[in-house]
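Page 37, continued from 36.
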């Protein structure tokens, strides 16, 4: 690529990097966003996806615990575990690595206009599905159509459907697709690595991937027995030379009981315990110190959100919400509910690892001030409220119990209503006052758009469980969605975070780490902040 062909902002970024105004990580993130090819960006920065510096061992069978549900359509996966199988057979247009940097994957690169309303996606040429069909723009357009089809019911519809209509998808050529967005969106590359967003073969997919498991990935599906086992076999003609290293992967369904997964790992019956959808904190406690097991920790934006519906009493009154948030003893909560594994929160849904994060002073536990505010709100004798939580999240239960005790000093009499996890998942939007687990997202704009905005008619978005919509907040967020310059976006986020902290609908006590527990013979497996199992570069060390 000639220098005159680069987006002019690339040169600005290079200058900012040389002057120390941005980090190498930020340069890579934003250079790829501007259409600088992944190979050029990573080559320039010497930040390619980690390669093995020593000889690996080819072959071998990896045994992984997992939850094997019968979800037939990858785009319909509404939680992480089902995607662990699909991810190793089919692939994504982009890739967000363990450092939270997103780059092209099945794409060779992309270009975004300065207004971030038009995106051109350039596919790599010469990539084939495992049934010998070549990957083309038609597969990308078909997959987008599945994501946006309301009858399919994909979580992707709530994400990309907020800014893209099916009519905005243009086939430019065999290897190019152009997207015409309804509004600027800086997080499009990150959205394309969301777990339901694998690319499907438009010639063969008819709604059941288990019948026609045609993907571009490093493994092929050999056996799938719902609730029991799944076997993946190495693909010999994978588009990335030399990969994968393993010959076979067996997923074994051990159920949701974390003790069974830990026991199996300790006994050597499995090599990797997939902890997604489980009580990872208890698993960490049970596994740490075992000399046969390696545990890798990574900071994430995963969080248990204390949330209040602002369209129902008493949470309509921001004074009541403010008083409750002051009753969070954050250090105690992270110590007792999170085993001191994570980062202290500030009642705004922006993680310290997000590039836009604006550092704020810690919020002190102050039940005396909370009682005074509650009195001003018209509750001089205190307030009775019911906190609803799921029954299979021990960290949430501990969080609720700590809050129950500490908030009593301020006059909150909290009754805890524990319901089955499945019921909470199905009805969490209807809960007046609850604690909801939210997964990691690599950019701050992503979660704010999902959970704290409304549509053009003013109706809260489907995942806005608290119904909180603030005009000033929404306008600033819209500006952030269209602001590429990181320094300017962070200025916007300083105000966005202040607004949510001062008059928002949530409390965030701490951000949770994530762990991967493996036998020490397993090499090359890194904890991913989203909990994704990435197994193409995993290999088994000979004893």
């Amino acid at each position: 690529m000639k220098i005159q062909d680069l987006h002019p902002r690339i040169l600005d970024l290079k200058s900012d990097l040389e002057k120390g105004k941005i980090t190498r990580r930020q340069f890579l993130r934003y250079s790829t966003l501007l259409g600088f090819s992944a190979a050029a960006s990573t080559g320039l920065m010497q930040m390619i996806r980690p390669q093995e510096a020593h000889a690996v061992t080819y072959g071998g069978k990896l045994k992984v615990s997992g939850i094997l549900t019968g979800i037939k359509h990858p785009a319909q996966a509404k939680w992480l575990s089902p995607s662990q199988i699909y991810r190793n057979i089919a692939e994504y247009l982009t890739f967000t690595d363990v450092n939270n940097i997103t780059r092209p994957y099945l794409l060779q690169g992309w270009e975004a206009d300065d207004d971030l309303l038009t995106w051109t996606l350039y596919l790599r040429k010469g990539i084939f599905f495992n049934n010998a069909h070549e990957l083309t723009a038609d597969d990308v357009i078909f997959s987008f159509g599945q994501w946006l089809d309301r009858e399919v019911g994909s979580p992707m519809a709530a994400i990309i459907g907020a800014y893209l209509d099916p009519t905005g998808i243009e086939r430019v050529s065999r290897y190019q697709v152009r997207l015409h967005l309804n509004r600027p969106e800086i997080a499009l590359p990150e959205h394309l690595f969301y777990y339901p967003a694998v690319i499907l073969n438009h010639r063969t997919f008819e709604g059941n991937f288990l019948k026609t498991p045609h993907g571009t990935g490093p493994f092929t599906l050999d056996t799938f027995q719902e609730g029991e086992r799944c076997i993946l076999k190495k693909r010999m003609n994978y588009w990335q030379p030399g990969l994968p290293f393993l010959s076979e992967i067996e997923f074994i369904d051990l159920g949701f009981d974390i003790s069974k997964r830990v026991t199996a790992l300790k006994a050597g019956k499995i090599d990797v315990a997939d902890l997604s959808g489980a009580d990872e904190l208890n698993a960490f406690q049970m596994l740490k110190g075992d000399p046969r097991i390696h545990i890798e920790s990574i900071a994430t934006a995963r969080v248990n959100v204390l949330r209040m519906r602002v369209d129902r009493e008493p949470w309509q009154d921001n004074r009541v919400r403010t008083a409750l948030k002051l009753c969070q003893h954050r250090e105690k909560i992270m110590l007792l509910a999170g085993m001191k594994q994570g980062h202290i929160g500030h009642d705004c849904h922006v993680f310290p690892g997000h590039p836009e994060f604006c550092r704020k002073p810690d919020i002190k536990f102050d039940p005396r001030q909370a009682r005074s505010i509650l009195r001003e709100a018209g509750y001089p004798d205190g307030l009775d409220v019911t906190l609803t939580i799921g029954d299979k999240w021990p960290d949430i239960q501990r969080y609720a119990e700590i809050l129950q005790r500490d908030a009593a000093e301020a006059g909150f009499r909290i009754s805890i209503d524990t319901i089955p996890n499945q019921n909470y998942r199905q009805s969490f939007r209807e809960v007046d006052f609850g604690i909801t687990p939210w997964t990691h997202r690599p950019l701050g704009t992503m979660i704010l758009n999902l959970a704290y905005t409304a549509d053009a008619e003013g109706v809260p978005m489907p995942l806005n469980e608290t119904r909180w919509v603030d005009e000033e907040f929404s306008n600033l967020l819209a500006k952030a969605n269209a602001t590429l310059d990181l320094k300017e976006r962070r200025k916007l986020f300083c105000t966005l975070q202040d607004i949510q902290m001062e008059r928002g609908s949530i409390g965030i006590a701490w951000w949770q780490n994530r762990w991967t527990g493996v036998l020490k013979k397993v090499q090359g497996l890194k904890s991913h902040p989203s909990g994704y199992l990435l197994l193409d570069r995993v290999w088994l060390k000979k004893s």
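The chain is about 30% helix and 20% strand. Flag for discussion at group meeting. The CA atoms of residues 68 and 403 lie 35 Å apart.
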